[in-house]
């Protein structure tokens, strides 16, 4: 049976790593049909809109999207399209695995943890955001709801149970932000009581970051709020070699979107040296979501073998290969 998915090639290196990823998925014979749509700078240039209605309609219809990086300016310009997509489709759970690969330049071995980040509330909602006309003051409210906290915590526990994880750690700042993250912590404690088979603990966010650097092996599944999750998931990527190995799944009730979480890297766009691993690993998450876990595992294993071999990996992974050679090596292990 063919599954139709929305494909967004993205900006910068996006089209290059998407080409690589689709080639690998075709080699896997994953039974996917691609509905190509525009978003970001490419969409603005062609249609005058950063996020065309046709793209939103396609995702609504297909319910599955695979997305390469979109450009988000720092400190000005248009707002994050990633945030806009998550909000529009209520993609409340962001799932970011961090897994060690032999052959990478990382400080640790045998890291295998998952961060589940609340995706639609908190600081990134920008409730009531404004800047004084003279630039002297800026404000933005942080708003969470009990329902929002409960559904992401429950998602984390259900995920842990489904994939055989043994522990969930709730990360918060309830000692200072007593109302906003205090609610998150209280809800997490309540939900944890419904999962007696899963060990539960909680950590203040600054301590959690320190513990991740000192003893990352103590973590299994981390669940946290939007802002803290954004920071912690990148920290976890650093434990295993960087954002080039960091995929992300954004899950809602009706729609799921899978992406490379790194930026569009315009400085290397067109040079043919972009590392496709993050998007490939996101595609593996997508295959899991589509009940093709056997093919997802084959893909992860092929990536691991190529990285361990090292000869044809891209320069950021210490190799001398380019994107196409890296892709060739992965495909050879899948035929």
Automatic annotation (TrEMBL):
Matches recorded under SUPFAM superfamilies: Isocitrate/Isopropylmalate dehydrogenase-like (SSF53659)
Presence of keyword Oxidoreductase: yes
Lineage start: Bacteria, Pseudomonadati, Pseudomonadota, Gammaproteobacteria, Chromatiales
Keyword Coiled coil attached: no
SMART domains recorded: Iso_dh
Gene3D superfamilies cross-referenced by the UniProt entry: Isopropylmalate Dehydrogenase
Similarity field: Belongs to the isocitrate and isopropylmalate dehydrogenases family.
InterPro entries, A to Z: IsoCit/isopropylmalate_DH_CS (IPR019818), IsoPropMal-DH-like_dom (IPR024084)
Alphabetic keyword roster: Oxidoreductase
UniProt-listed GO biological process terms: isocitrate metabolic process; tricarboxylic acid cycle
Entry's Gene Ontology molecular function annotations: isocitrate dehydrogenase (NAD+) activity; magnesium ion binding; NAD binding
Domain of life: Bacteria
Protein name (database record): Isocitrate dehydrogenase
């Amino acid at each position: 049976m063919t599954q139709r998915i929305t494909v967004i090639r993205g900006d910068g290196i996006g089209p290059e790593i998407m080409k690589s990823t689709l080639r690998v998925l075709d080699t896997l014979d994953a039974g996917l049909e691609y509905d190509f749509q525009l978003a970001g700078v490419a969409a603005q240039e062609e249609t005058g809109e950063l996020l065309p209605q046709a793209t939103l309609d396609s995702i609504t219809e297909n319910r599955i999207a695979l997305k390469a990086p979109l450009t988000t300016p720092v400190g000005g310009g248009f707002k994050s399209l990633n945030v806009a997509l998550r909000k529009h489709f209520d993609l409340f759970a962001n799932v970011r695995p961090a897994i060690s690969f032999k052959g990478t330049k990382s400080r640790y071995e045998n890291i295998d943890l998952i961060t589940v980040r609340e995706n639609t509330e908190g600081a990134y909602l920008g409730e009531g955001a404004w800047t004084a006309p003279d630039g002297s003051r800026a404000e933005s409210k942080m708003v969470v709801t009990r329902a929002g906290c409960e559904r992401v915590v429950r998602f984390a526990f259900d995920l842990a149970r489904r994939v055989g994880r043994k522990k969930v750690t709730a990360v918060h700042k309830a000692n200072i932000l007593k109302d906003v993250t205090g609610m998150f912590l209280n809800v997490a404690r309540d939900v944890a009581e419904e999962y007696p088979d899963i060990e539960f603990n909680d950590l203040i966010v600054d301590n959690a970051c320190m513990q991740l650097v000192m003893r990352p092996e103590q973590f299994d599944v981390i669940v946290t709020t939007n802002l803290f999750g954004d920071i912690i998931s990148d920290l976890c990527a650093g434990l295993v070699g960087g954002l080039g190995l960091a995929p992300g799944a954004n899950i809602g009730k009706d729609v799921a979107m899978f992406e490379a979480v790194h930026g569009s890297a315009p400085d290397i766009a067109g040079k043919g040296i972009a590392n496709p691993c993050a998007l490939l690993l996101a595609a593996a998450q997508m295959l899991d979501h589509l009940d093709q876990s056997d093919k997802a595992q084959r893909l992860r294993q092929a990536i691991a073998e190529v990285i361990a071999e090292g000869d044809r990996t891209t320069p950021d992974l210490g190799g001398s290969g380019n994107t196409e050679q890296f892709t060739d090596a992965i495909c050879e292990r899948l035929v």
